[in-house]
Amino acid sequence: MNKAIILAGGQGKRMKADMPKPLFKVLGDPMLEWVIAACESAGVSDICVVKGFMGEMIDEYLNGRYKTVLQAERLGTGHAVMQAIPFMEEDTDGNTLVLCGDAPFIDAETIGEALEYHKQQGNAATVITSELDDPTGYGRILRTASGISGIVEQKDASKEQLSIKEVNSGAYWFRTADLIDLLGKLNNDNVQKEYYLTDTIFIALSEGKKAGAFKSANPELILGANNRKDLLELNDIARRAVIEKHLENGVEFVCTDGVVIERSVEIGAGTQIQPNTILRKGTKIGSNCVIGPNALADHCTIGDNVVLNASQAYDSVIESGVTVGPYVHIRPDSHIKTGVHIGDFVEIKNSTIGEKTAIAHLAYIGDSDIGKKVNIGCGTVTVNYDGISKSRCVIGDNCFIGCNTNLIAPVKLGKAVYTAAGTTVTRDVPDYALAIDRGVMKVNEGYTLRKLKSSK
Q1: Which residues are registered as beta bridge partners of 48?
Q2: Bridging pattern class, strands 25-26 and 29-30
Q3: In the Cβ-directed half-sphere of 325, how many Cα atoms lie within 13 Å?
């Protein structure tokens, strides 16, 4: 069986945050998750993560999905992989992939193609490489006429070696049994006094074993983040790549300023994404919608021909032909059915809104089930919380809820019920009834004159 070891012990001091560097997010997912996803997509699911600085955060994030081992001291990449020897010894017949947990753009295609090359060549070790116009900071690939002869780190490279543009990506395939053997022969005789995984290539060659280099067609697989500026650049690269994918699928962007679409988002052809729109993971959008400007959808399912204008929606379903916004907040577990209109300054939470219902403006609908073709007047509030528990309101089909109506849950309105403006409903109302609750209005004549006179 093929295995993967992901090195995720980096602290990232220049990030200026108390968390492991691989947990910093690129387009909504930790860099570590990008690497794991590439492994899984390539069919490598037996994974061990090497943790270090604040390793408990790695454990908490993984939540038991994969094995972890601790590198208690930071003594180099070779030393990090040594911590996973017991993991490799569980099955030494296959091959082991070693990856950096803070290089998110490794891709499944590269992993698969490098493995095929590794096996076809009969290599004990294969380093995955990339060619960069500016290779500063990366280990250089040393080659002879017969192939790779080693890898030299930037700190240890000669002036001539520094001019080499083919660099080590930090990703390798090893025959598992050979990797275990090679790790036992590493030493720390170098400037940094660390155990370099790169030295395994030289050791393998010196013992007559085959080692090779697979040059990836992906120029970005080597990119990582050492500081916040680097992290921003990774996010920009990922953001552009996702937008390009949707453009190819027939999605329209009038301008990409402020547009952030996470990788798992699905969008139908003909939909227009306007500026300053954020679409988070788990969101599916149908065809011919207009999303934005200034909109956010997080884990929502949105049908065809929906308008979501300057509004936010979370963990909810919005069916086809719905118009939302501006300034609407749709909170989790809401279901907005076909043809609904929701206007400005409306908040909906944990509620079902029936077909062709209109909630024009300035209303709060929480923990409610609203029927078809209901009109919710301005200022309507479902009073769903009594300070201890939350209760539901039910509003039947074709109801007309007058302005400034308070519905004190639990309460049920039947079919075609009307409520007069300013009414507070405290008990169920039967079908076709009018609920009206108004105190006697008093007019105190001359009040203002007397008040103004007394203030002089």
Answers
A1: 5, 67
A2: antiparallel
A3: 20
Distance CA 329, CA 261 (A): 19
Nearest CA-CA partner of 261 in 241, 278, 248, 282: 278
| CB neighbourhood size of 437 (10 A) | 13
Q: How far apart are CA 242 and CA 263, in angstroms?
A: 6
Q: How far apart are CA 389 and CA 270, in angstroms?
A: 44
Say if residue 219 is preceded by a cis peptide, omega within 30 of 0.
no
List C-alpha distances in Å: 98 to 12, 49, 213, 395.
Answer: 20, 10, 14, 59
Query: Which of 118, 329, 341, 361 does the annotation list as catalytic?
Result: 361
Contact (Cβ atoms closer than 8 angstroms) between residue 48 and residue 99: no
Q: Is 335 a catalytic residue?
A: no
Amino acid at 18: D
Partners of 418 in beta bridges = 400, 434
Q: In the chain, what are the domain boundaries?
A: 3-215
What does residue 96 show for φ and ψ, rounded to 5 degrees? -125, 130
Peptide bond preceding 104: is omega within 30 degrees of 0, i.e. cis?
no
Share of the chain above pLDDT 90, in %: 84
Tokens (6 digits) for 205: 């060659």
226: tokens are 């050492």
pLDDT in tens, 124-148: 999 999 988 888 888 899 988 778 8
Buried b (16+ CB within 10 A) or exposed e, 8-35: bbbebeebeeebbbbbbbbbbbbbbbbb
The answer to whether the peptide bond before residue 275 is cis (omega within 30 degrees of 0) is no
d(CA 179, CA 3) in angstroms, rounded, equals 12
User: Residue 333 — left, alpha, or beta (φ > 0 → left; ψ -120 to 50 → alpha)?
Assistant: left
Three-point CA angle 322, 239, 292, nearest 5°: 25
CATH superfamily ID and name for 3-215: Spore Coat Polysaccharide Biosynthesis Protein SpsA; Chain A (3.90.550.10)
Contact 129, 214 (CB under 8 A): yes
pLDDT in tens, 350-395: 999 999 999 999 999 999 999 999 999 999 999 999 899 999 999 9
**235 token code pair:** 């996010």
Distance of CA 39 to the CA centre of its chain: 18
How many other β-carbons are positioned within 10 Å of the β-carbon of residue 201? 28
DSSP secondary-structure letter at 429?
Answer: B
Which residue has 């993560």 as its token pair? 49
SS3 369: strand
Biggest CA pair distance of the chain: 109
